[in-house]
Design brief:
With about 200 residues, the chain is of the alpha+beta class. It contains six helices and six strands. Strand 4 and strand 5 form a beta hairpin.
């Protein structure tokens, strides 16, 4: 019995070592993953979370994006990018659209599937120095067999994307402050996209 336990522990240690080496080979910079009390992550989950934190920090690479399934999806309140040809430009666009990206807080609150994480990030848009702080609930879905990310949701304010009217309540439609916030969000992201794609870049 003791021999069996020792063998299992040995295998787990080897697997952990392999995953750590794989993570370093991927060039993942965010390795200090903060978790809520009682939440634990295995090495595979730590690698996925670390890679996603790097992406949100404007630090993409082909190696990190190789952790995504080719048919993966990125979704936030104004964007649904399906497939590699759509989600990769989303991540590469951050580093050219914003002069500053500062993560103010992150904490993994669930180690299931999806992995759920609270995040607060400050962005400064190039050209106009417009500053915006966004608090998000990040959900990372992954295939347990392949270990690849199948979907990442970035829910501003912890809510589902409201870019479509089907997700807007009647109260919101008649609330002028909601329209101001909605329009401001669109204007901010559209300027970021314009700055990133216009000729002076």
């Amino acid at each position: 019995m003791a021999s069996g336990c020792s063998s299992t522990t040995h295998i787990a240690a080897i697997r952990s070592l392999i995953l750590n080496v794989a993570g370093s080979d991927l060039g993942i910079e965010n390795t200090n993953i903060k978790t809520a009390p009682g939440v634990t992550l295995d090495e595979q989950q730590k690698t996925l979370v670390g890679s996603v934190l790097d992406l949100f920090a404007g630090r993409p690479s082909l190696k990190k994006l190789s952790l995504w399934d080719d048919n993966g999806v990125f979704e936030d309140n104004i964007t649904i990018a399906s497939g590699r040809k759509q989600f990769e430009p989303q991540w590469y666009g951050l580093q050219t659209a914003f002069s500053e990206i500062e993560r103010l807080h992150h904490e993994v609150v669930s180690g299931g599937n999806p992995i759920s994480m609270d995040m607060k990030t400050r962005y400064v848009t190039k050209g106009i120095s417009k500053e915006q702080t966004i608090e998000s609930k990040i959900n990372i879905f992954y295939d347990k067999d392949t270990g690849k990310i199948t979907k990442v949701q970035d829910k501003w304010g912890g809510e589902l994307p409201d870019s479509s009217f089907k997700n807007v309540s009647i109260e919101q439609l008649f609330d002028p402050w909601w329209w101001v916030h909605y329009g401001e969000g669109w204007a901010w992201w559209m300027w970021s996209f314009t700055w990133d794609t216009w000729w002076w870049q």
